[in-house]
Amino acid sequence: MMRTSVAKLARPALLSRTFAMTARAMASGDTGAPPKTGGQGDAFQKRERASEDYAIRQREKEKLRELRKKLAEQQAHLQALSDHIDEITKEQGGEQN
């Protein structure tokens, strides 16, 4: 019994203390705080939303450009294959053209 109480006294108080942090609460008028009415918000939020929407649109445009490029490449490849098939069938006398 004596040994455990001495060990407790020997421990520094900082080691036994838990580190808890509270979440930072924003007041209703603070910049970046959500509006009470659920409206658009302040100018900072509008500008941030517009910036994010612009970035998303730019990424989508880039993806569409890449898809169109791949589609054009695939169509060109299919046309080349179709021309090759036509050439082979004409050489073998399959079509009388």
UniProtKB/TrEMBL annotation:
<dbReference type="InterPro" id="IPR007648">
    <property type="entry name" value="ATPase_inhibitor_mt"/>
</dbReference>
<comment type="function">
    <text>Inhibits the enzyme activity of ATPase.</text>
</comment>
<feature type="compositionally biased region" description="Basic and acidic residues">
    <location>
        <begin position="44"/>
        <end position="55"/>
    </location>
</feature>
<comment type="similarity">
    <text>Belongs to the ATPase inhibitor family.</text>
</comment>
<keyword id="KW-0496">Mitochondrion</keyword>
<dbReference type="GO" id="GO:0005739">
    <property type="term" value="C:mitochondrion"/>
</dbReference>
<feature type="region of interest" description="Disordered">
    <location>
        <begin position="26"/>
        <end position="55"/>
    </location>
</feature>
<dbReference type="Pfam" id="PF04568">
    <property type="entry name" value="IATP"/>
</dbReference>
<dbReference type="GO" id="GO:0042030">
    <property type="term" value="F:ATPase inhibitor activity"/>
</dbReference>
<protein>
    <recommendedName>
        <fullName>ATPase inhibitor, mitochondrial</fullName>
    </recommendedName>
</protein>
